[in-house]
Each structure stands twice: as structure tokens, then as C-alpha cells.
Amino acid sequence: MRKAVLIACAIVAFAAFAGSAVAGGGNSTNAQRCYKGGWQTLYRSDGSTFASQDACVSYAAHDGTLVTSAPIVGMAVTPDAGGYWLVNAAGAISLHGDASSHGSLAGASLSSPIVGMARTPDGGGYWLVNAAGGVFGFGDATFHGSLAGVSLSSPIEGMAGTPDGGGYWLVNAAGGVFGFGDATFYGPLGGGPLTYPIVDMAPTADGGGYWLVDAAGDIYPIGDATPLS
Prior knowledge:
Elements: H1 2-26, H2 29-32, H3 53-61, E1 72-77, E2 83-88, E3 93-97, E4 114-119, E5 125-130, E6 135-139, E7 156-161, E8 167-172, E9 177-181, E10 198-203, E11 209-214, E12 219-223
Antiparallel strand pairs: 1-2, 2-3, 4-5, 5-6, 7-8, 8-9, 10-11, 11-12
Helix pairs in contact: 1-3
């Protein structure tokens, strides 16, 4: 009986210690930044946003790195090359030259960071894609489907639109390519495991192929995309 009592006391003591540890994390200097609306101006290290103060506090209490600005993760050039859009991981768009705003995800709660963008042929809109494969259209960018809710073996890293704007491709870090709308699938990157992850893609002028690029700058042509020196 005495042994059972001692074990019960130990369990209670451990639970109290664990509770105080979590509470202490929530009161840490890092977590304090989340209070009084601070969570609305903070981001995770990957640039994703918080849905609530509690989410921010929990992340910070578990030694998550809080940053005050989301990194730039993609760009698109206007049709006349007189300007360009930049998008950050939180979905905010910055305009340069003759690039016009068609909306953004600034201020939205994103569970997965934005990783790339592509414009429509006339520059009247653009798509944003997040690491989970979710696609967001703005302006005259029509939604043709996405990978949202699909279990991915590796995160999406980039996207490219078809020449007529009737579709787009998504590419993941392992070189897998996914076509939507009138985007024809010309194959993924084969040949075994990659030394460096794929980070982006670009289509050929006629949409008959695409180039993939890895983190080391190596280029992989697929379809009618030709190797370039």
C-alpha cells in the first residue's frame, strides 16, 4: 500500500513539473512577444503565419524561432518586362515598375508558407502556391485545381503557368511534377535520389516542356526543353 501511495505521489509531482515547464515556456522572453497582438506581426522561421496568440505562444515555448518579416520566395515579370511582382512566404505582394496589384494573402492565416508564384499571360492576375500544394488565384488567374489535402512525400517548391493561362504545373523538392488545367505532364525528374532538392521550374515558350532547377543551380530539361550552356 505504501509503495502504491509513493508511486501516485511521484506521478502527481511529475505532472506538476511538466505543467510548470510548459507554463514557464509560455512566460519566456520569446513567448512574451506573442502577447498583446504581437502574434499578428510575427512569423515562424519558414515564413508561415499564426492563427492565434495561443499558436504563437506554443511555438515560441517549444524553442521555435520568431521572425518579424517573411522571406521573399518568388517573383513574376510583367508581360512588357516593365516591372515585376515579388511575393513573400506570408503571401504579401510587393509591386515594382508597371506591376499592378490584383490582391494578396497578406494578413491571412497560413498553415503552410507560400513558396512561389506565376502570372497570367496578359499580366492581369497571378497564382500563388504554398508548400502544401494549395493554389490561390488573383485577378484573372483562374483556379484549375491544387494538391491541397493530398499527402505529399516532399513539399511543393515552385510553379509555372502554361502559355495560354489555361493551366499550371507544380513541382516538389523531389522533382515530382503535377499538371492542372491544360498543363500537359511531360514527366517528373527521374534517375534516382537527388543530391540537392528542386527549388523551381520554368516552362518552354510553347508549353511543350519545362526546366527544373535544383538548389545547387543544376538544370534538368524535360519535354521539349533543351539543355542550355
